[in-house]
């Protein structure tokens, strides 16, 4: 039966039933918008979560999903990932060119990067409304990541010209925070006709993640119950500044605090070696990555959650895990630029502590100053974190913003 609703095309590398962050977010948005639009999805075949459990939610049966074949390869090999990004982006764009009409709306996310460029070019030809959810700002994010060494390089300048046009061709850019909005306004300031830029943050799972006492999860560990447990959970990559953090921790002399690092990444083995070499095993522990359905237990075991943003990353990304941390009722220790979205959030609502990355003395003094009596203060901060999550960052409230904007 033909629908009388306006058509909305979501074009993405990843989609339901995968539960990677991008797939999860786009699938939830698709469900919400299916009440308003005839939602059609162009996407690749599942590659990342082949051994995962059944997804935690169902996709609406009114959503039409068309999967496009492309080079699969191994996600652990950079050349294979690049080939997949290119071949899938071209295939998705070709399918979009055949199927999308001028009267349709299109919704994409900024990764993979080639797809953003190709769909923005197609928009110039087809004249449809293009909405871009900005998770990454290219090529600016390649500098702090070390992929490109200098903004003065010829290659960087070529990429910047290409991507500035791609972002500028959008009808609307949906960004994650105030810092990202400022970066894009500056990036596009020379364009005569600029896209609308609106802020819609990520959301936290305030339903499945509750603010429960730490003792709920560490009943058999009296030692941890009396200590202040700091927790970093997520990617242990080169741009997170974790080795530098460990260097500070190695100098701290405070038996009332300990640190848990949960996840995987490029520097995890280096971190483990550093801890062993400096005989820090009594205060630093490592754990493997966790599934989405384990977040309640993982987040529940700490008193303070650590969020880091590498130097130079202000406005180029907003750590999405922040909002589940708030849902769990945990205060935040943020290490990064003081004008970044998360730093402003923490300071405005008084839900934790913020330090710039190179304030090693400030962090050292902070860690050394903590005592068991600070646990009550942290609990009060955590209570406020949960209130903020419910008031501003619940799934229903954020999805309603997408519904109103699109």
Automatic annotation (TrEMBL):
The keyword Transferase applies. Gene3D superfamilies: Glycogen Phosphorylase B (3.40.50.2000). Coiled coil: none annotated. It comes from the Bacteria. GO terms for molecular function: glycosyltransferase activity. Keywords: Transferase. GO terms for biological process: lipopolysaccharide biosynthetic process. PANTHER family: GLYCOSYLTRANSFERASE WBBK-RELATED. This is Glycosyltransferase family 4 protein. It comes from Haoranjiania flava.
């Amino acid at each position: 039966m033909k629908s009388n609703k306006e058509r909305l095309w979501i074009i993405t590398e990843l989609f339901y039933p995968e539960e990677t962050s991008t797939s999860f977010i786009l699938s939830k948005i698709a469900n919400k918008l299916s009440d308003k639009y005839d939602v059609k999805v162009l996407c690749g075949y599942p590659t990342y979560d082949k051994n995962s459990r059944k997804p935690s939610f169902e996709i609406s049966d009114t959503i039409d999903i068309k999967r496009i074949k492309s080079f699969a390869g191994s996600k652990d090999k950079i050349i294979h990932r690049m080939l997949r990004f290119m071949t899938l982006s071209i295939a998705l764009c070709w399918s979009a060119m055949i199927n999308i009409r001028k009267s349709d709306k299109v919704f994409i996310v900024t990764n993979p990067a080639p797809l953003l460029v190709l769909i923005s070019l197609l928009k110039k030809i087809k004249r449809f409304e293009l909405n871009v959810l900005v998770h990454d700002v290219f090529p600016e994010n390649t500098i702090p990541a070390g992929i490109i060494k200098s903004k003065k390089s010829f290659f960087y300048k070529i990429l910047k010209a290409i991507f500035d046009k791609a972002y500028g061709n959008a009808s609307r850019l949906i960004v994650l925070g105030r810092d990202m909005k400022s970066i894009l306004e500056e990036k596009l300031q020379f364009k005569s006709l600029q896209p609308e830029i609106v802020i819609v943050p990520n959301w936290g799972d305030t339903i499945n993640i509750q603010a429960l006492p730490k003792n709920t999860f560490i009943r058999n560990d009296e030692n941890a119950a009396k200590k202040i447990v700091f927790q970093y959970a997520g990617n242990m990559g080169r741009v997170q500044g974790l080795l530098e953090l460990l260097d500070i921790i190695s100098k701290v002399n405070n038996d009332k605090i300990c640190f848990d690092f949960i996840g995987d990444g490029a520097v995890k083995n280096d971190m483990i070696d550093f801890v062993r070499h400096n005989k820090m095993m009594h205060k630093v522990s490592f754990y493997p990555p966790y599934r989405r359905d384990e977040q309640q237990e993982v987040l529940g075991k700490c008193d303070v959650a650590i969020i880091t943003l590498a130097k130079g990353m202000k406005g180029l990304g907003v750590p999405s895990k922040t909002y589940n941390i708030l849902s769990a009722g945990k205060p935040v220790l943020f290490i990064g630029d003081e004008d970044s979205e998360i730093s402003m959030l923490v300071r405005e609502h008084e839900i934790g502590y913020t330090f710039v990355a190179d304030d090693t003395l400030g962090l050292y003094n902070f860690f050394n100053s903590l005592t068991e009596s600070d646990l009550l203060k942290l609990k009060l901060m955590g209570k406020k974190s949960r209130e903020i999550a419910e008031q501003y960052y619940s799934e229903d409230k954020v999805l309603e913003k997408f519904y109103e904007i699109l």
